[in-house]
Amino acid sequence: MNFKKFLFVGAALMSVSFFAACSDDENEPQNPPVEEPDEPNGDDPEGPVSLEDQWNNTNTVTWPVDTIINLTNHYTVPEGKTLIIKEGVQIIASTAGVGANHVPVEFTVNGNLYCEGTEEKPVRFSIPEADRTEANIFAGLWGGIVASETCGEMLIDHTIIEYTGGQVVEGSPAATSGVYTAGDDAYPQITTNNINGKYVITNSILRNGWSDGIYLMGGEAIIMNNVFAANGFDGAEAVNVKAGCKVDIAGNVMFSPNTNGLKLSSSGQSENRAQALVQAYNNTIINAGWRRDGEKGGCIYVEKNILANVFNNLMVNCKFRAMTPSFDIPNDPEEGYDDDSVIDYNYYASGNQASDIVWDGEDESGVAYAWQGYNYEHEDYNVGVVDVHSVIATENDLKDPQFVGFDINGVGLTDYVYNDAWDFHLQAGSPALTGACDGTEAFAAPYFSTTGLTVNGETYTSPAVAAHYGAYGE
């Protein structure tokens, strides 16, 4: 990443404390409930328990159901230790930042993190409720979750992560540790950096961030059944994968990523960081690429020696088709993608509306309609190899997938505010229900559908390949 954005947010720095929600008034802080004597979150007659002190003489800390955690400083799960976050917990990061330089609050995981939300009571990483406005969608008001090279396991289940993307500056923990560069990078909602780590991100919502939704620089991961919305202000993707990763990405909805839903690259490959391996299937990507200038991006971008099989995805109103830059230089970590990759059997649908931003001029496409971008003579379209069997809309055949509750002609191409009432299931008789791979093809096998990934003693398996396009069938 190379983002240039400095955020200066003024407010007083407060002390860090640990509060539990009160059933009568959730805004009135109370001490955590009394736990068993050997639990770290026991009753404290002196007042609220310091977040740092919770780690004294224990390897596991649990934040109980419906607790409110106010972060006015950076928070770290120490190496070799485990934090369990139960359903309904709210982690609220101060928008004032830390110290005189207002360094964005960072949630660093050097040990293990298990977010155990439920559909009824998700875990929530956010900012104060008054600041959760449309105007702040891309304000980058805190630093997100950074899983370092010592983070062994992480589960993000039924969790909302929002309003991230603060600028990495001098004094940011991620700059000090070398994960990111001060002045050049902005925080994604989730970062991973351990090539031996195991990560499961499922049933969650990652929205309203100045940078990427997920930035994977290492580890084995399952990313399934999530909703991504409004990821990236003037660059960035919903999911961004680099070398040292082996990942299944399936069943996700990605609405209005600035550049791509999927940026898949083996950038950083070396003796210590293996070639990136990705299976990306049955995802629905909508409105990708329109807020990004130039001819880069638009739904899927595959480069730099990654071995990526990308199939059965449903792209709706995206700016371009799947791109494979430098495809004439295969199997080179600095240039082309691995030519054993299969990027095919995808469905590209278009509405009939034009973008309200059309980028014209040198190195600009002038593309105004999705169908136009799909059929554009792009230098990064590997014609005859990529999307040979894909369904691609044209001006006279827009390939409406017939969603149950989303009008592909009624939402602006540059819109980025997600509507929870939308339903991306397919109507009976939808053309997107047929023609996809059935999962028996050799290239189509997910990495973790059989063996799974074991996190916190539980084995999670990737979804089976569904013989329809997109995240949801009927």
Automatic annotation (TrEMBL):
<feature type="region of interest" description="Disordered">
    <location>
        <begin position="24"/>
        <end position="54"/>
    </location>
</feature>
<dbReference type="InterPro" id="IPR011050">
    <property type="entry name" value="Pectin_lyase_fold/virulence"/>
</dbReference>
<keyword id="KW-0732">Signal</keyword>
<protein>
    <recommendedName>
        <fullName>Right-handed parallel beta-helix repeat-containing protein</fullName>
    </recommendedName>
</protein>
<feature type="compositionally biased region" description="Acidic residues">
    <location>
        <begin position="35"/>
        <end position="46"/>
    </location>
</feature>
<feature type="signal peptide">
    <location>
        <begin position="1"/>
        <end position="20"/>
    </location>
</feature>
